[in-house]
Amino acid sequence: MKLNKEIREPEQLNPLALAYMGDGVLDTYVRYRLISSGQVRPNKLHKEATQYVSAKSQAYILRALLDEGIFSEEELAIVKRGRNARSGTVPKNTDRATYNLSTAYEALIGYLYLTGREKRMDELVLKSFEMIERKE
């Protein structure tokens, strides 16, 4: 839901703003996936969700997707901007390189959401979930 408000020129947004949006979108996808699979205990939901949304998992996903070469030039440009973005915070539980890749992944999801490319976003998120679930 976008509340009938359009974000003009999402490709011009700061990559950290794209990542912020992507983080929220991914969180919704993960929650839906877990609840639809029958998991409903709150403490278990939170624990399971971290497997999908941790910086380490997101960096793993992005590396694998990059290796597959499935991104368009436009998507690669967003990934690079997200990876090179510098936030004022230092990650607590991960190294800077992992954090940067995680930010790049979230920026791409945020960008796809804000540009209305739901089908592509669904495709990438589903592929991401499959990667995480195979890894377990």
UniProtKB/TrEMBL annotation:
Gene3D superfamilies: Ribonuclease III domain. Residues 1-134 form the RNase III domain. Keywords: Cytoplasm, Endonuclease, Hydrolase, Magnesium, Nuclease, Ribosome biogenesis, RNA-binding, rRNA processing, rRNA-binding. Its main location: cytoplasm. InterPro entries: Mini3_fam (IPR008226), RNase_III_dom (IPR000999), RNase_III_sf (IPR036389). One of its GO terms (molecular function) is rRNA binding. Its cofactor is Mg(2+). The active site is at 23. GO terms for biological process: rRNA processing. It comes from the Bacteria. It is found in: Cytoplasm. It is an enzyme of class 3 (hydrolase). Its EC number is 3.1.26.-. One of its GO terms (cellular component) is cytoplasm. Homodimer. Belongs to the MrnC RNase family. Involved in correct processing of both the 5' and 3' ends of 23S rRNA precursor. Processes 30S rRNA precursor transcript even in absence of ribonuclease 3 (Rnc); Rnc processes 30S rRNA into smaller rRNA precursors. This is Mini-ribonuclease 3. It comes from Salipaludibacillus aurantiacus.
